[in-house]
Each structure stands twice: as structure tokens, then as C-alpha cells.
């Protein structure tokens, strides 16, 4: 069971990394999403090392290891949820910026037409 939780935790973190990289293109905000993705990738690497320990020590999994893996799963889920929610917000902002730019362009064209 501990191994399953550790694998699921790692998969959640890697999903958050993939989503953050996707959001670079979707939102046009390169630096924040890449920094977030790199940080999550480093955390996933740490989680992979811990997973290896869990696999090696599975027969000796005590309450400390089980608690660590369960908390890691919770944290990974929260990070994925954060990326999803923030991604939606930044996507909406990007769409609003485009709509504002289009409105400004139309207003400029109308001012030129009336002048």
C-alpha cells in the first residue's frame, strides 16, 4: 500500500509539471510557469528517490514511512490543484488581455475614422 501511495504521489507531481509547462503556451506567461515547473520537477525527483527507498524498505514500512508517504500524496494533490486553479485564472486573464487589445484597436480605428 505504501508503494502505491508513493507512486500515485509521484504521478500527481509529474502531472502538475506537465500542466505547468502546457500553461506556458496557453497563458503566454513563460517565467512563472517554467519556474513553477522546475520547482515541481525537482520535488518529483526527490519523491522518486523516496519511492526507491519505499520499494527497498517496503517490508519494513513503519508508521513514520507511511505518514511521510501519505503527507507527500496530500501535498502533491494540493500542488496539482493549485496549478489547475491558477492555470484557469491566468488563462482567463490572457483572454481578457486579448479582448482588451482588440477593443483598443477597434476604438483607435473608430477615432481615426471620425477624425
| Helix count, DSSP H or I runs of 4 or more residues | 3
Radius of gyration, in Å, reads 21 Å
Average pLDDT reading: 87
- Portion in strands: under 5%
How does the overall form come out from the CA principal axes? rod-shaped
Number of E-type strands: 0
Structure description:
With about 120 residues, the chain is mainly alpha-helical. It has one domain. About 90% of the residues lie in helices and about 0% in strands. It is built from 3 helices and no strands. The chain has helices at about 1-25, 30-55, 65-115. α1 runs antiparallel to α2 and α1 (about 1-25) packs parallel to α3. It is rod-shaped, with a radius of gyration of 21 Å. The mean pLDDT is about 85.
Give a summary of the structure in a few sentences.
The protein has 115 residues and is an all-alpha fold. It has three helices and no strands.
Secondary structure layout plus pairing:
Blueprint: H1 2-27, H2 30-57, H3 63-114
Helix pairs in contact: 1-2, 1-3
Tags for this entry?
mainly alpha; single chain
Amino acid at each position: 500500500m505504501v508503494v502505491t501511495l508513493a507512486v500515485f504521489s509521484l504521478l500527481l507531481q509529474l502531472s502538475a509539471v506537465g500542466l505547468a509547462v502546457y500553461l506556458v503556451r496557453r497563458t503566454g506567461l513563460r517565467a512563472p510557469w517554467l519556474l513553477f515547473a522546475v520547482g515541481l520537477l525537482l520535488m518529483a525527483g526527490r519523491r522518486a528517490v523516496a519511492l526507491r527507498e519505499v520499494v527497498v524498505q517496503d517490508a519494513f514500512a513503519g508508521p513514520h514511512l507511511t505518514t511521510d508517504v501519505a503527507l507527500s500524496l496530500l501535498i502533491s494533490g494540493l500542488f496539482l490543484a493549485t496549478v489547475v486553479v491558477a492555470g484557469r485564472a491566468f488563462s482567463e486573464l490572457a483572454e481578457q488581455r486579448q479582448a482588451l487589445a482588440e477593443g483598443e484597436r477597434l476604438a483607435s480605428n473608430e477615432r481615426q475614422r471620425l477624425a
